[in-house]
Amino acid sequence: MLESINEIKVKNIMTKSNLPVGGYSANPYIGCSHACKYCYATFMKRFTGHTEPWGTFLDVKYWDDIKKPQKYAGQRVVIGSVTDGYNPSEEKYRRTRALLEQLKNSDAKITICTKSELVTRDLDILKEMKDVTVSWSINTLDETFRSDMDNASSIEQRLTAMKQVYDSGIRTVCFIAPIFPGITDIEKIIEKVKDRSDFIWLENLNLRGDYKKNILDYINRKYPNLTQLYDEIYKKGKKLYWKELEESICKYAQNNGYPYLDNFLPDGRSEPGKPTIINYFYHEQVKCSENSGARKNDNE
Question: Which domains does the chain have, with CATH numbers?
Fold first, then answer.
């Protein structure tokens, strides 16, 4: 629950991205009211000076209008790499919409990462842009587990928004992440979203920092039958679970006619009902992964 909201002026909204997809990141907010218990973006507090618990603060960014948006033509611009540009406060402050308006004629490849249905408000702008991808994080269909993990929109709200955006002709992604061993049912989620998603991105749960203990304590408390499995993965560093899961998903994709790729980000759209599955397992081993906690600023 948010305890403080501050409006701040920043020099530049665009940052050279450390994400594997390259390009730029744009985050209209610092912090996020979703308060996801597994959020890697908590590392941002090292750079912003916030001491409050993650999920209790939000800085609303204001910046001078982007003077030469065409400089980003052909570049991927990820909106929401360390926040959700469509957190509930966006309804009031409209900073993500302002960013989209400034980039509307830039010919940049826009990728929006969210857990919200609010993105549908901006379909009028998104449909005018040349290359747009909207991604929703969904790692469970169990609303109880979802509510234990975040304060974001319900799974049903995300699914409804995904369908609306997909039907409007915009490329969509179901980001099954982070995958919780023994909890996330990947195949069930894929079958649920196959009529509204062009791509399925898979990423494993990577525990580090302060939230590692919190997640392991939660598993011990709520899923004691999985304690041994989590100890093997996150205390002993064993990779067998992920290897076997990867093999299982690959076989499932082949049996169901779903294209399956490894660490690749294609353009275009997939065949209706046959989303392309893309494996981003072992993301901590990907050079310059956003999940590494590395951060590089671009003050151009």
Answer: 4-292 (3.20.20)
